[in-house]
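Bumping with the actual sequence this time:
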Amino acid sequence: MLRPWQVTLSERIDPERGTPIYMQIIHALIRDIETGRLASGTYLPSSRELANALGVNRKTVVLAYEDLIAQGWLSTEGTRGTMVSRSLPTGTSSQTATPEPEQRVEQTHYRFAEPPARALALPGGRGIKLDEGAPDGRLFPADQLARAYRSAINRASRANRMQYRDPRGSDSLREQVAEMLRSQRGLPVTPANICITRGSQNGLFLALQVLIEPGDAVIVEELTYEPAVAAIRALGGKVIPVRLDEEGIDVAEVEAMCRRHSVRAIFVTPHHQFPTTIAMRPERRLQLLEVARQFGVAVIEDDYDHEFHFQSQPLLPMAGYAPGQVIYLGSMSKLLLPALRIGYLAAPEKVIDAVAHRVSLTDGMGNTVTEETAAELIANGELRRHARKAWRVYAERRQSFAALLDAHLGDRVDFAVPDGGLAFWVKFRGDIDAIEQRAQAQGLRFASHRSFMARDSADKGLRLGFASLDDGEAARAVSALAEAAR
C-alpha cells in the first residue's frame, strides 16, 4: 500500500484562526487532493498519527476524516486504513484549489459577462450624504409599519395568499394602485393594466426588455437618470441623447433622430425632470406624443415622485391622455420607504402580460407580504396621512435649503427653487471638477455631475437632495459645499 513518507499538509493548521480546526484539516486535505499532491488511491496516515503530527486532538482528525468520507473525497477499506478515493480524477492545477471560508475568491475558470465600467451606488461611508432626492426614512412611524405587516400577514394567511402567485403582483395592491391612478392622476386603468415591480428601476428594465432588441435606439434627454442609460446599454440598446431646454425635451431633435435611427422608445421624466427638476410644458408633451405616434415609438414616462409638488397642482401624466402610447412608471419608495422596494408599471394589458412573462423568469414569487402591507397602508388611510405630514416637512426643508444655498453660495451658484420634487439642480460658476474633489475631502458624498450627462455638451451641475436631511445635517452639508467652492 502507498503511504506518504512524511506526514505533512500543504496548509498550516492554526488554532488561532476563526475557522474550526477540523474544517482547516478538511480544506487542507481537499486542496492537496485537488492539486495532485495526494493522488487517487493514496493511503493517509491513521487518525492518531496525523493528530500527533499536527498537535491536535485525535477526535478532531477523526471528525475530519468522517466528513471527507461522507463527501466522497476519502474511502476506507476495512482494516487497511483510509485512502484518497479511487473514483476521483487525477490532480489538477493548483489554481482550482478550494479556498478556505475567510479567503477571497479572486479567479474564475469560466466565461461570464463583465460588469460595465460604472461604480455601484453603495450606501454607507463617512461624512454627509447629499443624495439625489431620497425621502427621510425616519419620518414613517415604525410601529405603524409593524402593525400593517402584522395585519397583512394575518389576512393573507387566512385567505391562503401566501403561496406562489401572479407575477404581475398582489391582487390587492394592484387594485389599490389602479384606483389611485384613476382618481388622482387620470389614467384609465384597471388592475389588468398594472404590474408591481421592485422599484421604478426594475420597472424601467422590464419595460425596456419588452421594447428593444440589440441595436435598437432609445432617445433620452441629454441630462438624465444614469441608471436608465446603463439599463439601455446593458440590453444592447443604443442611447441617443437629445437637447433639453426650460420647457423640456427638444421635440424637433427627437423627430430628426427618429428619422435617422431605429428608435423604439423615448425615456423622459416630464413631471420633475431628472436631474434639472423642470416640468415639461403641456404643448411640448403633446408635440412629443404626436412624434411618437408618427413613428410608432413607445414613450416611457418615469413619474418617480409625483406626490411632492409644492407649487399649484401637479400636471397630469402623459399616460392619462395617451395610454396607448405611454408606458407609465411609478414608485412608492418616495412616499413610503425606499427599503420596501415597491414600484409599478401601467400599460396596455398585452404589454403587462409580456412584462409578467419577464418577471416570471427572474422573480416569479415577488414579495407578497410587503405588497399586501402596502395595500393595507393605502386601504386604512395611513399612507395618505403620512403623505400629508411628509409634504409639510419637505415643503419647509425645501425653503430652508434654498435659504442655506443663498446664504453660503449665493454668488457662486445658479439655481431655482424647484416647483416639485425632493432635490435642487445647482450649477456652479467655478471649476466643478475641482469643487467636487474639495467637497469630497470635506466629507461630502454625492453623485458626480458627469453621472447626469448623456453627452459632453450638456450643462454641468449637481443634483442635491434636501428631503432626507434635517436642519442640522443640511446646514453642515451646505457649509462644507461652500468651503469647497471657495
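The C-alpha cells above came from a reply further down the thread. The domain at 128-135+385-485 is CATH 3.90.1150.10 (Aspartate Aminotransferase, domain 1).
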